[in-house]
Amino acid sequence: MKKTNILKKLRSSGLRPTKQRVEIAKFLFDREKTFHFTVESLNKLLTKKTTNKFALATIYNTVHAFKTAGHLSEVDVRGKKKTTYFDTNVKNHHHFYDTETSELIDINEDEVVFEKIPKAPNGKKIKNLEVFINLKN
What we know:
Strands 1-3-2 form a three-stranded antiparallel β-sheet. A three-stranded mixed β-sheet has the order 5-4-6, with no helix packed on it. It has one domain (3-135): Winged helix-like DNA-binding domain superfamily/Winged helix DNA-binding domain (Arc Repressor Mutant, subunit A, Orthogonal Bundle), CATH 1.10.10.10. The protein has four helices and six strands, in the order H-H-E-H-H-E-E-E-E-E. It is an alpha+beta fold. 33% of the residues lie in helices and 20% in strands.
């Protein structure tokens, strides 16, 4: 991803393009495949893969600003405890969740077919449908 695109993402998220934020944005968006992460797992990966030090608050604020700007989607996973993942794929799609490895895996939207869905309650519209499939060995 070009540096100008990274700077646009930061600015459209209301963030000043500091060295740390640019590094976080590159790590998140300069990749070919979708990336799923928690703030904590991102912190560990950044510590391992980069030479910069990042305050957890900087990572948290950057991720949430990207989510608010529509650059990331939030996926709540309910297992033994609720965990919030973030997804670089913001298009409508579904997920597998491996309960043993805590891995979130995309399922293309066209791979799931709905034959019948319930009618929305009065005064409400269905925004989207998401299938979440838990996996185990």
